[in-house]
Design a protein that fits this description.
mainly alpha, two-stranded antiparallel sheet
Length: about 425
């Protein structure tokens, strides 16, 4: 494989992912939340909503826009406050990382300047990963609060428009997250290689800070937002239903708005940071292992970029499967939604399997050595011979394992299958049998 291929494929795929996410956001913006727009009635369900019968079409649209604005304002306020504290945490952690790594006693021919350089670039990677994680969560929250009222308004037209609006807005976060994470990681590797020269092992040691930064922010995003939304949910129920006799999820109850704010900052912004953390950790771990192997010592650029090329090609495959769900074969009835989502997982797994095989055979040498801890006295390492198709097997196990988990989860949670139907039947005889 030409060394120029990964150098082009990785950043181009990342940029395409960001552009595709922005394009999906643009398509979501076609749904207007301005009163005075005509609404197409659907023939596949209830034609009129209770609110429309009481208030009229324009007032419903305006009310949806007002609720969306209130949720968006609350989510922005929460995240900005959270990010102030995370900024302090990042500074403290950056100082700690630099101090600890920079003060390591040099060995194996390394010098004090090598250790200081390692501490400095590990700190830079940590800050970059943390900022990317924050940005991923923030963009996810922005598209969620931008699309929630639009999805509700589209649902008045039918299942297909609502599904496409919801699916596109959800895909925005996924593609922006994947594109930003991949692009920033690739740029960081290029810059680090310029600074480290021939010390590729040191480069991929320092780049692990990228994963640490992403996972640290994800922890605060998930836990902080999760605690907030649970507290707001309970508060809304206690004050609204128990004390004031306000129906559940009634926007007249301020705690309901707070509950929806929590759903956005915890389940969406926190999830975005968490997904980026998972991507960064897994990719950086693969790079570290490759860096200490024969691939790193021989400066095999194609082989070292194998983990990033898997992510880059996965982006292109996901763009194709997304277009199938939103444009080529969208769900038009409620019963088709589950099937459409399931086919996303199945199609992407089937397409990605031969792609991963091709990448493994073309980018990796037929065999290479990987150091392992030695059980022989006086010998630090043993070397295991690894074949390129071993890497494909690892990727394929992850692909098909994820598919199997998804299908199994669907069986036990979907109302189309026996486990959920049995639970529903048990409810007829009371809570004890349920």
């Amino acid at each position: 494989m030409d060394p120029l291929l990964p150098t082009i494929l990785i950043p181009v795929s990342a940029v395409i992912s960001i552009c595709f996410g922005a394009w999906l956001w643009y398509r979501v913006s076609f749904v207007s939340t301005t009163a005075g727009q005509s609404t197409i009635r659907s023939m596949n369900g209830r034609e009129y909503l209770l609110e429309e019968e009481q208030r009229g079409d324009d007032e419903v649209v305006q009310k949806a826009a007002d609720i969306q604005d209130a949720i968006s304002e609350g989510a922005n306020s929460f995240l900005w406050t959270e990010y102030k504290y995370l900024g302090v945490f990042m500074v403290i952690m950056a100082i700690l990382i630099f101090s600890l790594l920079g003060s390591v006693t040099p060995d194996d021919g390394r010098t004090r300047s090598d250790e200081i350089r390692n501490g400095l670039f590990s700190t830079i990677a940590f800050v970059l990963g943390a900022i990317t994680s924050i940005l991923s969560g923030f963009l996810g929250m922005k598209i969620a609060t931008y699309a929630n009222a639009r999805t509700a308004l589209e649902a008045r037209k039918g299942i297909a428009p609502a599904f496409m609006c919801a699916f596109r807005s959800g895909a925005v976060m996924g593609f922006l997250l994947a594109g930003l994470g991949l692009l920033n990681l690739f740029i960081a590797i290029i810059i680090f290689l310029k600074a480290y020269g021939d010390d590729w092992k040191g480069v991929f040691e320092a780049i692990t800070g990228y994963g640490l930064g992403g996972s640290s922010i994800a922890l605060f995003g998930r836990v902080g937002g999760g605690i907030y939304t649970k507290a707001a949910d309970v508060g809304a129920d206690l004050v609204g239903k128990v004390e004031k006799d306000i129906p559940e999820d009634d926007p007249r109850n301020p705690a309901v708005i707070a509950d929806n704010v929590g759903d956005n900052v915890g389940d969406i912004a926190g999830m975005g940071a968490d997904l980026f953390g998972s991507f960064a950790e897994s990719t950086c771990a693969a790079l570290v292992i490759a860096g200490v192997s024969e691939l790193g010592s021989s400066h095999n650029w194609n082989a070292m970029m194998f983990p990033l090329m898997v992510s880059a090609s996965g982006i292109l495959v996901c763009i194709l499967t997304t277009l199938i769900a939103t444009d080529l074969k969208p769900a038009k009835q409620i019963s088709e939604i589950e099937h459409t989502l399931k086919m996303q997982l199945i199609i992407s797994t089937i397409i990605m399997t031969p792609v991963a095989l091709g990448l493994a055979l073309l980018s990796l040498p037929q065999t290479f050595n990987l150091p392992m801890p030695s059980h022989t006295a006086g010998q630090e390492y043993d070397y295991k011979t690894v074949k390129n198709w071993y890497m494909f097997v690892c990727v394929a196990c992850g692909l098909w394992g994820g598919l199997a988990i998804g299908l199994q989860t669907e069986y036990f949670t979907s109302n189309r299958y026996k486990p959920v139907q049995d639970v529903a039947d048990a409810c007829r005889t009371g809570p004890a049998t349920d």
